Amino acid sequence: SYEVTQTPSESVSPGQTASITCSGDRLGDKYVGWYQQKPGRSPVLVIYQDSKRPSGIPERFSGSNSGNTATLTISGTQAMDEADYYCQAWDSSTACVVFGGGTKLTVL
Amino acid sequence: QLQLQESGPGLVKPSETLSLTCTVSGGSISSSDYYWSWIRQPPGKGLEWIGSIYYSGSTYYNPSLKSRVAISVDTSKNQFSLKMTSVPAADTAVFYCARHHKSTSGNNWFDPWGQGTLVTVSS
Known about the structure:
By secondary structure, chain A is mainly β. Helices cover 0% and strands 47% of the residues of chain A. The mean pLDDT of chain B is 96.
């Protein structure tokens, strides 16, 4: 079955750029979504179709996907961006949604 | 604004059937643009997709859970439901329902999500 892998944790200083990656075989051939989840809350979609931002998501969130890696970039990271982030893709061979294991972003 | 709300028992005994319902408000579950999904998250762990259903009743299931899962839809009530049979303690999780944007190109995402409901499997 298809798998996507995320680094378990990342840290960033306030105001700096955070990059969270998601890796999978030929992931660039698939569409990737990203979700932000704060403690005790439901996940929130922050990027879909690799790089599109839903309404209400700040411009500092951006995404890219090429080769075997998709990247969620947070520019000018704020304390409120501290959360778990999950990538998600669709495996057409098994008709199955796959999620990455999540990356805990710490802003310090 | 579309909202989803999960409901159902918070405690289920091992080997029994877990049943949850998601009520959709602020929009129609019969929209041709979307599927409707169940996703779970064990305490302290990541997200796992369970399955999705179209308003017509067409379904997709996670192959790892397919033998124990059934998702159904009731368009008259704007609801869809999950049944998971023979649950072990390891099925303890927060269960979310979500609207699933899915295209034939493979482009898909989940938005919005319900608030989630914790189901504990214990005797």
